[in-house]
Amino acid sequence: MIPIIDAHHHIWDLAANRHPWLQEEPPIPFRYGDYRALRRDYLPADYRRDAARQKVFATVYMEAEHDPADPLRETRWVHDIAAREGLPDAMAGAAFLDRADAAAVIRAQAAMPLVRSLRHKPKGVARPQDYDPAHRIPGSMRCPAWRAGYRHLADSGLHFELQAPWWHLPDALDLARDFPGTLIVLNHLGLPADRSPAGLAAWREAMARLSEAPNVRVKLSGCCVPGQPWAPALQAPVVLEAVRLFGAERCMVASNFPVDGLLASFDEVMGGMRAIIADLPEADQRRILYGTAAETYRIRTGDRLSP
């Protein structure tokens, strides 16, 4: 079994930290529907129990929408957890690019040993038919204030974690071209929730255009479809198309746990990913399962790849 670096997972302690979406009422609208099952602590022991059968040897923590008033508190907490528990090996922190403190927060995050990237989910429209590239929605990738904050990433050496639906990928392509010194890591395959022939064709076209930017990588993750079981037959069309477009050297697997645990087990997600890419050359499988993530998040593999 080829080892895995899980390039995107969360942990949280709801007694120690404030996560409004996990603690406040009413719950926010969520792409997977009812997420109340997530409103419990999820700590390294829980993650290790879920991942026990998949030979995960390193992980990357993704910011979990901690209290926006103090994004650095989440980062310090993750560093404390890593020092005690040996997990995660790297992390993506939070910054709010359209706020006045964006530059200061980016500098502070970059000074933390485990931080490799930052995420700020840009605003957008909820449906592809409402997308207009001429819009300058406040907080979007085309918002002047948001882009002013984004500009500071190049000096920090940090990557940007992009979570946006596929119809906003033209904005991401412009961002990648305007700021070629900043690596963009697209989360969750651009959220291809619509698996109809028309939906997949539109997603594929947007991904194909984005793949033209060399400073973009893709996480093969977060692709659960509400109401349908996680199965290789369901996910293979989007996973293999992303690999075809971007190449194995720009793709990496990730569990998105515990969030994807709402609809699938860790073994179903990661075992399914192994099954989907099983016919690719072994060198490509290794890139997807750990090599791209190790390079992207500067994780030293050392002797941890030994049988």
TrEMBL record:
Gene3D superfamilies, alphabetized: Metal-dependent hydrolases (3.20.20.140)
InterPro entries: Amidohydro-rel, Metal_Hydrolase, Metallo-dep_Lactonases
Amidohydrolase-related domain ranges (all copies): 5-299
Pfam family, one: Amidohydro_2
Family the UniProt entry places it in: Belongs to the metallo-dependent hydrolases superfamily.
Protein name: Amidohydrolase family protein
Species per Swiss-Prot/TrEMBL record: Paracraurococcus lichenis
Organism ancestry: Bacteria, Pseudomonadati, Pseudomonadota, Alphaproteobacteria, Acetobacterales
